[in-house]
Amino acid sequence: MTPRAKVLWMIGSVCVTALIVVAWQMIANYSGIPAVFLPGPDRAWRALVTGFTTGDLTQLSMATVERMIYGWVLASLAGIVLGAIIGSSKIAREYVAPMLEMVRPVPVSAFMPVVIAIVGLSGGMVLIVIALGAIWPVLLATVHGVSSVEPRLMEVSRSLRLGRLQTLWKIALPNSQPDILAGMRIGLTVSLILAVIGEMLTSEAGLGYHVLVAARAFRSADLFAGVILLGLIGLVSNVALQEIERYMLRWKQR
Amino acid sequence: MTPPATRKPLIEFRNVNHAFGTRPIVHNIDLTVGESEFVCLIGPSGCGKTTLLRMVGGLLTPSSGQVLFNGRPVDGPEKEISFMFQDYSKALLPWRTAAGNVSLALEATNVPAAQRGPRIKELLAKVGLANHADHYPAQLSGGMQQRVQIARCLAQEPSVLLMDEPFGALDAMTRQALQDEILRLIAVSKTTVLFVTHDLEEAIYLGDRVVALYPNPGRVAQVFDVKLPFPRDQLSTREHPEFLRLRRELFDFIREGEA
Ligand SMILES: Nc1ncnc2c1ncn2[C@@H]1O[C@H](COP(=O)(O)OP(=O)(O)OP(=O)(O)O)[C@@H](O)[C@H]1O
Ligand SMILES: [Mg+2]
């Protein structure tokens, strides 16, 4: 994109956002939906401001972000390690891959009762659930990346007499970098979703539980403030990861 | 088909046969390459040139017969043998810079990190890429990528270089420059070279001997001794009467093969 087109795009998206906010305000003011259900952007904004200045929104956001990141890091590490093991061995691939394909479509929520039975309703349970849900995109991406190295590069590796570990570390894993990063980005979104659901289930302090309580008490402004915050967290983390990806994959650009 | 008696045999094909499935690819190959000899392999596409090189490189075991290196059968890639692949764009790690790609060969032989930097610098300078150390392969031209591969091979400090149509895809100027570069580099290091090419003139220009192969299945057809003086020169060597005589002989040979 040329710089000019970029600026136009930005102006465009700002306009669309502004339009949506205005429309939201109009609906809140004139549609007759009671304010207990639908606050206008003005009230949601005020709830945000008071939440951050006098309330505990900062701590709650931090708690959720922390949970999301811990679970995501756990999932990514486990996904890369397991994926590397499975991907670099043909036998492992043949035996394990069908099982992976079977387990993968099962929603994590189905595993939740099992996890709860084992570790109880706790912060630890939430972490495990996040890791279980976010591991898939990373795991499958790593298996694919590690097992689809250009054959010529494998010959280079043989010719230089690199060992198995060296081949994995210097060739197969870097080769998987684009897949792994894309998988991790999906995993991050999954982590946020599961962090929220986990908080709702376990009543662990965080934005998820905050939103649930606000909804139950008909504090719609707080509810919307929480939802907006969650959206922002998702957006910012995604953009940050995109930037990291762009830096790590700079070798791909011409 | 042996080198001049003054050379110690380094690579020997002994009655080598290879088949992929039931299809014979190379047949009864007997060929000896002497120490610091430059042998060029020519022959039509599919006659098994790459197959022979891969055997010496330890990437392929012949169906029958033996390939010896230093008198011992090759049973895997040897430390002293370096393979330079034809498709340079696939043989470099795209996520590593030119320096990083050369470094790979040093890492493979456990050269301590502190010593790698200066060695890489020296190697890249040797192939004329001193100013491109930080470039990724995608930012380099084909000729430059091939030079990175040369530098990586030299980093192994091999006693044998296996080169599979290394200059095939390059323009004439780059090609001649790299030909001279290789000749200069191996004259210093006394490296033995097995070199595959489609270009008869390139084979004569570079080689001590030119081995011509017949196809279906691949066999040694004829071996030409190149008695041209060193150092070779793009102008005077190519105008040398012996060069012209060999060129004619090889062209006639190829034409007969096609007839
Ligand atoms: N892995 C393989 N499986 C089956 N057939 C193969 C394999 N590798 C090579 N061949 C066949 O063996 C024959 C010789 O291949 P090779 O690559 O050695 O030829 P070449 O002389 O190097 O040809 P070119 O000049 O085109 O590179 C070809 O007909 C090819 O199709
Ligand atoms: Mg070939």
Q: What would you note in describing this structure?
A:
The complex is a heterodimer of chains A (254) and B (259). In chain A, helix 3 runs antiparallel to helix 8 (164-202) and helix 8 (164-202) runs parallel beside helix 9 (207-216). The model of chain A has no long low-confidence stretch (mean pLDDT 89). Chain A has helices spanning 3-30, 41-53, 57-88, 90-103, 108-119, 123-147, 151-159, 164-202, 207-216, 220-248. The longest helix of chain A has 39 residues, at 164-202. Chain A contains 10 helices and no strands. Chain B is α/β, with parallel strands linked by helices and 259 residues long. Chain B folds into 2 domains: 1-80 and 161-171 and 187-259, P-loop containing nucleotide triphosphate hydrolases (Rossmann fold, 3-Layer(aba) Sandwich), CATH 3.40.50.300; 88-157, no CATH class. Chain B is 38% helix and 25% strand. Chain B is built from 9 helices and 10 strands. In chain B, the strands form 2 sheets. A 6-stranded mixed sheet of chain B has the order 6-7-8-3-9-10, with helices on both faces. In chain B, strand 1 (9-20) and strand 2 form a beta hairpin. The mean pLDDT of chain B is 89. Classes of the chains: A mainly alpha (254), B alpha/beta (259). The A-B interface holds A 150, 152-153, 155-156, 158-162, 166, 170-171, 174-175, 177, 250-254 and B 57-59, 76-77, 79, 82-83, 85, 87, 90-91, 93-97, 104-105, 107-108, 136-139, 156. Bound molecules: adenosine-5'-triphosphate and magnesium ion. Magnesium ion (MG) is lined by residues 49-50, 164 of chain B.
